[in-house]
Amino acid sequence: KYTTEAAHMYLIGDATAGGWDNANANLPELTYQGNGIWKGTNIPLTGTKQFKFLLKKGTWDFNYGSTAAEPGPLTGDIKEGGANIGVATTGNYTVEIDEYKRTYKVY
């Protein structure tokens, strides 16, 4: 038998309020838009720091990062367990990830 769980997508890393603690209650959560797309708006990110996408709190088994060398750019392709994504400037950002097209963008 198997069980299903509600889908989630979080940002994790020292660029976020939750840091690298994968069980932190302050990890910013993205909202599912349909068709594999997750989006978060007005997310505060700290400059010169990094983040990844985390699908389930409390484990590193399900995460996405950039396919580029670390730190990855603010727009690119994702892969399971990929590189951290770098944030150059502190500010509030919109973050999108497309699991079907395997892309992300931060703007």
Explained architecture:
With 107 residues, the chain is mostly beta strands. The protein has no helices and 9 strands. The protein has strands at residues 10-12, 31-34, 37-45, 49-54, 63-66, 75-80, 85-87, 91-98, 103-106. Strands 1, 2, 3, 4, 5, 6, 7, 8 and 9 form a 9-stranded antiparallel sheet that branches. A hairpin with an 8-residue loop joins strand 4 (49-54) and strand 5. It is globular, with a radius of gyration of 13 Å. The mean pLDDT is 95.
Q: How does the SSE layout of this entry go?
A:
Elements: E1 10-12, E2 31-34, E3 37-45, E4 49-54, E5 63-66, E6 75-80, E7 85-87, E8 91-98, E9 103-106
Antiparallel strand pairs: 1-4, 2-3, 3-8, 4-5, 4-7, 5-6, 6-9, 8-9
Describe this structure in a few short sentences.
The protein has 107 residues and is an all-beta fold. The protein has strands at residues 10-12, 31-34, 37-45, 49-54, 63-66, 75-80, 85-87, 91-98, 103-106.
Portion in beta strands: 35-45%
Topology, number of strands: 9
Fraction of helical residues: under 10%
Low-pLDDT residue intervals, each spanning 5 or more residues: none
Q: What would you call the quaternary organization?
A: single chain
Mean pLDDT: 95
Large-scale geometry: globular
| Secondary-structure element series | EEEEEEEEE
Structural class: mainly beta
What distance lies between the first and last C-alpha atoms, to the nearest angstrom?
Answer: 42 Å
Instruction: Count helical runs.
Output: 0
Radius of gyration (Å): 13 Å
Largest sheet: 9 strands, antiparallel
